[in-house]
Design brief:
heterotrimer, A alpha/beta (about 200), B mainly alpha (about 240), C mainly alpha (about 220), A: about 200 residues, alpha/beta, Rossmann fold, three-stranded antiparallel sheet, 5 helices, C: mainly alpha, 10 helices, elongated
């Protein structure tokens, strides 16, 4: 049983306080939806959890995770940017992240099938549309198992069918005991505890 | 059959498929004749047998400039008439032109070697060819830097035309720079005063190499057209919904 | 280990594909070297004397100018975030990226050296000496230049700023690289002394470069 929690988090960016005194908790098998207006610090919070931003106060802990790894090392981060190289093929892009991220890995071909990109395996990523690029980044979440998924507007650029597929993938992840934390404007499509952030003063 | 018909890539492919074997055959025959005549040409009283390098060097040097001319015309086609084959022609001519220029450099340096005692001398003529080679490489780098050929085409066309204007200026500057430092030019072309024994093989070789260029260029254009078709088919494949 | 080799293989592949900059560095090296005689004149004796210096300057500028994109490209598409988060220590990932960059952009410079040596009228020994010193010295240029590339990412400025930051750091490498090549050609110093110092500089940069780059990346991302 894992539990990801943060307490008394304070984040300052460019001299401006984005949020302060923030706490949250997400036990395994549950999703946390972070909502709020633009500029309220949803992305900043995700990046703080991912270890990409250092909070000026507070701490984040993952109880029940692997003790010698940091939270970031047990998490997937799906940001606004796709982390894809246009010159490499779909397969090369995904294989690279599987080899580089390491840990428990799945079959690349199968992951491409589950995001319905198996017809484009050997095509350069440059040929993909925005939605397809998004699917390819989602395949990264599947190819290497990580208990925590940090998702920033995950369903943007996805069509209805793609959103349905993604909802299914998130459900599977949760039933396996994973944790999902997503910053979103639109309903996620799964049962999620909502955490509303206020716009910074 | 007019020029408009040729503008259609499909017609172009069909036509060149018929023409290419004949062109290749003619090139091979002329090259053989030219090489035989060059081998039979008498030695120069001053340079000995090394003068025969001229039969390879001069056609290559001529083509190095001729190809840039072709590319300039093609670039005008891209910029002014937006001819669908123009940028294919310009793109595929660049590597071939670079190869001829490189051969001109190598043969020139081999030709100069017995005179200079070194493989390279900053001789005005050779130096200009070296700069031309660098410009070819730059152009190829530009084509390679952009993945979408139609976007690269306009940039390359502008660069080619600027180059065409600049080449005479560069040539003039290099000549001027070189005369400042006592010219050491060995490679002289006799021009019309050249003896017939040299002139005829030289002309045959020049025609043979020009034909070689046309053959290679048409074949390369076919490849490029097919490559672009593969690319658009792949893009269609990427966009098709999985069943 | 698989993570690092995957990173190296990916970076080399990108550098060699369409849009990659590996061969542009060599072209730049070639152009700078060809430009020099126009400034100093075509006197072969003079060019022979200046040859090692010209080649070293050309290689220095070529290897620094291609460094600009080392981290910038990964930053722009978000890959850098994932590299920072991964289980691979960031220092090692930085070292792997620098190694890949050297293999794709630095090694071709050394391969091109004999051709350029010909243009500058260097004989076999001199060319070999320059190539050898470049082989020992260009890794140091890449690994110190990497610090500047990392700073450029965190400051959101590239290009000239990188050159201004890094060029002063590369002065020692330039001094001992040219000194070793000159020693091999004319003496009076022995080749070994400056060459050993050059190797030592490279070894130091292997340690300092990745740590400094990783530190600046870690604190500069936002």
């Amino acid at each position: 049983m894992m539990r990801l929690s943060g307490k008394d988090l304070r984040c300052v960016r460019g001299g401006r306080e984005v949020f302060a005194g923030l706490g949250f908790a997400a036990p395994s098998g549950e999703a946390l939806a972070i909502t709020g207006p633009n500029g309220s610090g949803k992305t900043s919070l995700l990046r703080v959890i991912a270890g990409l931003l250092v909070p000026s106060e507070g701490s984040i802990t993952l109880d029940g995770g692997e003790a010698e790894l940091t939270v970031a090392e047990q998490a997937h981060y799906l940001g606004h940017r796709d982390a894809l190289k246009p010159g490499l093929s779909v397969l090369e892009n995904l294989s690279f992240w599987r080899d580089f991220l390491g840990g428990e890995a799945d079959d690349v071909g199968q992951c491409l099938t589950s995001v319905s990109l198996d017809h484009a395996t050997h095509l350069p990523a440059a040929y993909l549309s925005a939605g397809q690029r998004r699917r390819l980044s989602i395949a990264r979440l599947l190819v290497v198992r990580r208990p925590v998924w940090l998702l920033d507007e995950p369903t943007s650029a996805l069509d209805t069918k793609g959103q349905d597929v993604f909802v299914g993938l998130m459900r599977d992840h949760l039933t396996r005991g994973g944790i999902v934390i997503a910053a979103t404007h639109t309903p996620l499509g799964i049962d999620a505890t909502e955490m509303r952030m206020r716009a910074a003063p | 059959m007019s020029l408009i018909d040729l503008a259609n890539p499909t017609r172009f492919l069909a036509l060149t498929a018929r023409v290419l074997p004949w062109l290749a055959g003619a090139t091979a025959i002329l090259l053989l004749i030219g090489l035989y005549q060059s081998a039979m040409a008498p030695d120069d009283y001053q340079q000995g047998a090394t003068v025969k390098i001229m039969f390879i060097h001069v056609p290559n040097a001529w083509l190095s400039m001729f190809v840039w001319g072709i590319m300039s015309v093609a670039s005008l086609g891209t910029l002014v008439w937006r001819h669908p084959l123009a940028d294919v022609a310009a793109k595929t001519a660049a590597p071939i032109g670079a190869a001829f220029t490189f051969l001109a450099l190598v043969t020139g340096s081999l030709w100069g070697r017995p005179m200079w005692g070194t493989y390279w001398e900053w001789d005005a003529r050779l130096t200009s060819v070296l700069i031309l080679f660098l410009m070819y490489l730059g152009l190829i780098a530009l084509w390679r830097a952009v993945e979408d050929p139609s976007r690269a085409a306009r940039a390359a066309a502008v660069l080619t035309l600027v180059g065409a204007i600049n080449i005479p200026i560069i040539k003039f500057s290099v000549d001027w720079w070189n005369t400042l430092h006592q010219p050491a030019s060995v490679i002289r072309m006799g021009g019309p005063t050249l003896d017939n024994a040299f002139l005829i093989p030289l002309l045959v070789m020049a025609i043979a190499f020009s034909l070689l260029f046309i053959t290679l260029h048409l074949a390369a254009m076919r490849n490029e057209i097919l490559r672009r078709r593969v690319r658009s088919l792949q893009m269609m494949q990427a966009n098709q919904k999985a069943a | 280990m698989t993570a690092l080799s995957a990173l190296i293989r990916r970076d080399i592949r990108i550098a060699l594909r369409v849009g990659g900059g590996a061969l542009i560095g060599v072209l730049f090296f070639l152009t700078v070297t060809v430009l020099m005689p126009f400034a100093v004149g075509p006197d072969l004796a003079l060019l022979t004397r200046l040859g090692p210096a010209i080649l070293w300057l050309g290689a220095l500028l070529a290897s620094l100018l291609t460094l600009d994109r080392l981290f910038m490209a990964d930053h722009e598409d978000g890959s850098l975030d994932l590299i920072v988060m991964s289980r691979t220590p960031l220092e090692l990932a930085c070292a792997a990226k620098a190694l890949a960059h050297w293999l794709a952009a630095g090694l071709p410079l050394i391969v091109a050296t004999p051709v350029l040596g010909l243009l500058l009228n260097l004989d076999g020994t001199a060319t070999l000496a320059v190539a050898l010193t470049l082989l020992a010295g260009t890794p140091a240029l890449t690994f110190t230049g990497m610090i500047g590339a990392a700073l450029a990412v965190t400051l959101h400025r590239g290009g000239l700023l990188l050159a201004v930051l890094v060029l002063p750091l590369s002065i020692p490498v330039l001094i001992f690289g040219v000194a070793a090549s000159q020693a091999a050609i004319t003496g009076p110093l022995s080749f070994g002394t400056p060459f050993s110092i050059l190797c030592a500089l490279s070894l130091v940069s292997f340690v300092v470069g990745p740590f400094a780059a990783a530190a600046s990346l870690r604190h500069g991302l936002d």
